[in-house]
Specification:
single chain; about 150 residues; about 35% helix; alpha+beta
Amino acid sequence: MALVPNIPGLVVQPVENSAEMSAVRRPHAECHVATGYVDSDDLDADGFIQDPWIPFSDYYVALDSAADNQIVGTCRIIRPSVRGFPAFQECETLPNALDVFATLDPARCVEVSALATPRIGMQNMAISAALYGLVWQEAIADRKSTRLNSSHT
């Protein structure tokens, strides 16, 4: 299994309960609004992105342990379902990519998406790398292939 470098003070872990889910969905929405990926008018009454993929997703959070476990990033794995994957529904997919995916068992695939971090520069890269490292390890441990959705902040 690939090793992800240890970043002092950065903790990445799965989101375990509904309180943690609410805590990560708020900065996720804020980051996507700040970058213009989502319009603030599209948020629900709780300030969350209205997202039909949540029931099919496992979320992960990055925390800064040196700053009272402040949330500094999040991303998710979308599991296989009858809905398919958002990347194929919301993004243009080139024919040669479709040929590759046609040979894969969709039940053994996941999509990694919803990366959000309010940090900039190297902090953003370090947080993103740590989150992606964890979700790739989770996917490999679960014997899944991955498709990285390029829409992230």
